[in-house]
Amino acid sequence: MAHALVGPGSGDARAPRLGRPVRDPGAPGVVDGVVLLLPDGVPESGRGPSLLAHAALRPLGRSLVRAAGRDHGLVAHVVRYRGRGWNGADARLAADARWAVGEVARRHGDVPVCLVGHGMGGRAALRAADHAAVVSVLALAPWLPGDDVAAEPEPVRQLLGRQVMVVHGTTDETAHPELSYRLAIRAKKANRSTCRFEVHSDGHALRQHHGEVLALAADFVLGSLFGRPFSRPVADAFAAPPPLGLRMPLAAGFGRSLRP
């Protein structure tokens, strides 16, 4: 069984870790692309990483690997942070995400990486997009700080040259969807390859329309990593000017409508 790769200070239980790889047993031996899954966290905490948040993303990794099938050598890893807190200017989860991208490059060489994060992990994915290996970012219900005139706004320049998709439930009470919309507006100005989907009547965990969200994630990840044509709704969302391309509704039955 493959062991998890550990970060600097590997003797410390709080070192970041690159979890065991998830891949299709029938896929080619060579790795063509990597998805790094970044779990949710909390704004401030000195506690260790959340095993529950980590486990919640493994099914998404398996779903993406299955979608890639035997046509692509896709590998997914769920990153284990040093802890669960973002912790202000330390931005620990983003730092752990950057370490994970570097570890992928060390292990697999020059392969494209897609960062997929949920909640606070979505914020980490957006922040860590400045690594040269990152070609795309999928932020699911990203947690973002509220507007504060005394604080620097969330950066967006690091998204330049990446394909970026934000997906947010309209009834999310943990990570306010309006904040991700405002970020998407700023990101679109810096990077035209930005879109955002709204999942109506869904909350932070995106459970109510789980199948559609999985299908949307697969469409984006496979298109951004391997050049597969995006489905029509995704292509339209990227092409549409604000606000249309940033408030694109995720249609019921989205996965069933995709081409083979």
Structural commentary:
The structure is a single chain. The chain has 260 residues and is α/β, with parallel strands linked by helices. The chain has helices spanning 51-68, 92-108, 120-127, 177-190, 210-226, 232-239, and strands at residues 5-6, 17-18, 22-23, 33-38, 74-80, 113-118, 134-140, 163-169, 194-199, 248-249. Strands 1, 2, 3, 4, 5, 6, 7, 8, 9 and 10 form a ten-stranded mixed β-sheet that branches. Strand 8, helix 4 and strand 9 (194-199) form a beta-alpha-beta unit.
Offer a concise description of the structure:
This protein is of the alpha/beta class and 260 residues long. It has helices spanning 51-68, 92-108, 120-127, 177-190, 210-226, 232-239; strands spanning 5-6, 17-18, 22-23, 33-38, 74-80, 113-118, 134-140, 163-169, 194-199, 248-249.
Considering DSSP H and I runs of 4 or more, what fraction of the residues is helical?
25-40%
Query: What general form does the structure show?
Result: globular
Radius of gyration computed on alpha carbons: 17 Å
Q: What percent strand?
A: 15-25%
Number of strands: 10
State the secondary-structure class: alpha/beta
Instruction: Give the N-to-C terminal Cα separation.
Output: 33 Å
Helix and strand pattern: EEEEHEHEHEEHEHHE
Biggest sheet character = 10 strands, mixed
Low-confidence stretches: 1-6, 8-12
Mean pLDDT: 91
User: How many helical stretches?
Assistant: 6
